[in-house]
Amino acid sequence: MTYSGEVTVGGPADVHELKDLMITKIAVGPMNNNAYLLRCRATDEQLLIDAANEADTLLGMIGGDGIASVVTTHRHGDHWQALAEVVAATGARTYAGREDADGIPVRTDVPVDDGDTVRVGRVELTARHLVGHTPGSIALVYDDPHGHPHVFTGDCLFPGGPGRTTRPEEFNSLMGGLETKLFDVLPDETWIYPGHGNDTTIGTERPHLAEWRARGW
């Protein structure tokens, strides 16, 4: 089956199979949050991005192999409702952006800064700190050596624009980070996995940057 990235709450997961990494996407909870399970194909180690809701659903997706770690992309409550239960069941290490860690009611074992590496088995993800949606939001970039990059953006980038901000300075900060750390350095083929809704690509969104700047959201 071809991966589409289109998932619905209560529906099946969708699996994006890369040469070194398997990415399983599922939608959970009343705010239609996306959670992503990453599995290193060489070692079978697993990492979960955003234990957002429905712990039983997430643990069912994780399966008997468990997870080594769970990354919370930012501190907003809809992205960590199942975190405590998932960590208790799996013993996973917890990662979050340093500036958001205090806003997550589960201890962050590894505070993450811009440029830090987060590993799942032999696969490396690079953290990009994006300020604006929250002070400590992070995106995770997988630069696939066999193809184009893949980026897990949390609520910082969606199809059609950046994540929600409440003040002009927050919007300007988020747009600046998106431009310099993602759009300026990643090719159009880069696949974007957001915190809610459908996936997109850098190339699909790039032509609209000036439009977003002009509208201010």
From TrEMBL:
Metallo-beta-lactamase domain location: 32-196
Pfam families tied to this protein: Lactamase_B
Alphabetical list of InterPro entries matching this protein: MBL_Glyoxalase_II, Metallo-B-lactamas, RibonucZ/Hydroxyglut_hydro
SUPFAM superfamilies per UniProt: Metallo-hydrolase/oxidoreductase
PANTHER family cross-referenced by the UniProt entry: CONSERVED PROTEIN, HYDROXYACYLGLUTATHIONE HYDROLASE GLOC
Protein name: MBL fold metallo-hydrolase
Species for this entry: Streptomyces tibetensis
